[in-house]
């Protein structure tokens, strides 16, 4: 299947698509031994031999996503003509070839992403997706409210007016102030140039957030791998994933303390309580007199309690005088 050369170079983990276009224009890419300089050129990785600087492309099936806390004094590139330290030198133990997603200046520190997934990197860097990037800036002297408003509304640079940004004060001291600048553009040295326009002198610049990702406890020079959820979350609008809704458990109804026995009627009808004593009404509407005793053993008003069979069996026979015949027993009513 034919693919654009810059896409193939990106998928091979050489560099991003934008940087791959520069490689093509500069004559550093060859297809089947022929140098190609046109950006619209395509090749089939299954049949064609694509090489960069004479080295054939090797496509990695395993994608890596790395978050690095870049210290100052490192170049965000894979090569440097002045032989300065590279950010990839900090990735000890990472054997796969990865490249930076965007860049941080030599004197800028903070959060930097690296990967060998070209499509993922290209989507994050494309201005259309407007992935937020937050920087903390320490400036010399005191910052005025008017300067913050100018930066937030957009300032004129050599390459055009900047998009609206989120600018706020972080903390203030006697000699320096810290401000937060959140942008979604990816211009070269944009935050530094925005500060220069409003007459702010940058002493220190640190990226603290990229989309929903923060540096956390990583020290300068340390890195970690992203989780699958973090990788997918950066693809959401603004690079910020929505939190999962928490399940709310409905409270159970309180248990009834009533010990009265209840019965069930027709479906949907409320249950009617059953009285312990059987009391009803006659056909004429008069109240019916209770019969016997209640199940609880309480005597019913107006009648003595009935004798139990045990008491009847313990009944003593009547005494008769000598010479008299015993009285016949009374028939039980």
Report on this model:
16% of the residues lie in helices and 21% in strands. Among the domains are: 1-57, RNA-binding S4 domain (Structural Genomics Hypothetical 15.5 Kd Protein In mrcA-pckA Intergenic Region, Chain A), CATH 3.10.290.10; 60-120 and 216-241, Pseudouridine synthase I, catalytic domain, N-terminal subdomain (Alpha-Beta Plaits, 2-Layer Sandwich), CATH 3.30.70; 132-210, Alpha-L RNA-binding motif (Alpha-Beta Plaits). The strands form 4 sheets. Strands 7, 8, 9, 10, 13, 14, 15, 16 and 17 form a 9-stranded mixed β-sheet that branches. The longest helix has 9 residues, at 17-25. α1 crosses α2 (17-25). It is built from 7 helices and 17 strands. It has helices at residues 5-11, 17-25, 118-125, 145-153, 190-197, 228-233, 309-313, and strands at residues 3-4, 29-31, 34-35, 42-43, 50-52, 55-56, 65-70, 99-101, 109-115, 133-140, 156-157, 160-161, 166-172, 176-183, 202-210, 213-214, 223-225. With 333 residues, the chain is α+β, with helices and mostly antiparallel strands. One of its GO terms (cellular component) is cytosol. Keywords: Isomerase, RNA-binding. Pfam families: PseudoU_synth_2, S4. This is Pseudouridine synthase.
